[in-house]
Amino acid sequence: VGNSSVLTCPPKPNTTMVTWKINPNVGGPCTLGYRADQNKTDRTNCTDSMNWKFRPDQDPALEIRQVEIAHEGNYTCEVVATEGNFHRTYHLTVLVPPRLTLYCDDHGNLVCEAAAGKPAAQISWVLENNSTPKEESHDNGTVTVHSKFTAHSTNVTNTTCIVSHPAGNQSKSIAC
């Protein structure tokens, strides 16, 4: 989320036409097209965040700026050239790094929260703990994971919550 993504399309000599067919999981399809004989580009129902990376006659790559969850879906590039037709399909999955918070509840227990990540994050503790994480799904496809650390010993003063996620790992320490 928030980064730019570039999807390449195989450039071929003597290209006559290039078409990107975009079918997001949310919302309607859009199309970017290029015709070499008229040196003309065309777009249908595509947002401004989707466009050619460079000039389509030199490099038919697609750039998605400021990637959002709504951009998830299938992206197919079709190249028509004198030597034949060529297709390349991508399935774009968007990762959302969770927001990590660590706090002490009213009973002195540590609570670790990985909020609004996609996919759901994994939570572990530096000190062993038998807590079962609870997941809360959101309408936009993100998931918040809660884990509570209950100290069975009064001499535990500080511990660390570790959040593992494909978009990057994080950790925080706190003393209650």
From TrEMBL:
One of its GO terms (molecular function) is signaling receptor activity. One of its GO terms (biological process) is regulation of neuroinflammatory response. The keyword Glycoprotein applies. This is MOR1A protein. Keywords: Disulfide bond, Glycoprotein, Membrane, Receptor, Transmembrane, Transmembrane helix. One of its GO terms (cellular component) is external side of plasma membrane. Signal peptide: none annotated. It is found in: Membrane. Belongs to the CD200R family. It comes from the Eukaryota. It is a single-pass membrane protein. Residues 60-175 form the Ig-like domain. The lineage of its organism: Eukaryota, Metazoa, Chordata, Craniata, Vertebrata. Its main location: membrane. InterPro entries: CD200R (IPR040012), CD80_C2-set (IPR013162), Ig-like_dom (IPR007110), Ig-like_dom_sf (IPR036179), Ig-like_fold (IPR013783), Ig_sub (IPR003599), Ig_V-set (IPR013106). The keyword Membrane applies. The gene is Cd200r1a.
